[in-house]
Amino acid sequence: MGWVTQSRRRQIRAKGRAMQLMRPTGTPSVSVMAYAPPPQAVALETGAAVAPFVAQITNDELATATYGAPRTNDILMDGDRRYALKDAQPVYDGNTICGWALISSGGETNDISGGLG
Fold first, then answer.
1. CA proximity to 56, closest of 24, 25, 108, 10
2. Quick one: 85 exposed, middle or buried, by C-beta within 10 A (0-12, 13-18, 19+)?
3. What does the alpha-carbon distance between residue 51 and residue 47 come to, in Å, rounded to a whole number?
4. pTM of this prediction?
5. Percent of the chain beyond pLDDT 70?
6. pLDDT digit string, tens, across residues 98-111
7. In terms of DSSP H, where are the helices of the chain?
8. 102 forms bridges with which residues in the sheet?
């Protein structure tokens, strides 16, 4: 295990929070510890400013659960917020994948009340 892997694990464990990664069908799913830094860039999408949601994860949970590589349109749940993956960039430590940068959009909540109350 190289310093890249150790450094990622340390940062994600210290600053991360639990999230759920799943295929669009809902199964399989895997719990991951993810670190989502504040958005750095804002893209214009249909005239409105939209910042992509980027979460850094290790490959540990995916390898243990035999989930495989994250794919476009997989779902990342952060609490009650639901994000659709647009891209997943592998992070290498030498020749070994040690983590993923999950780039997603969305952020809709699962709250079906519509704010009525």
1. 10
2. buried
3. 13
4. 0.82
5. 83
6. 999 999 988 787 65
7. 3-15, 60-64
8. 55, 88
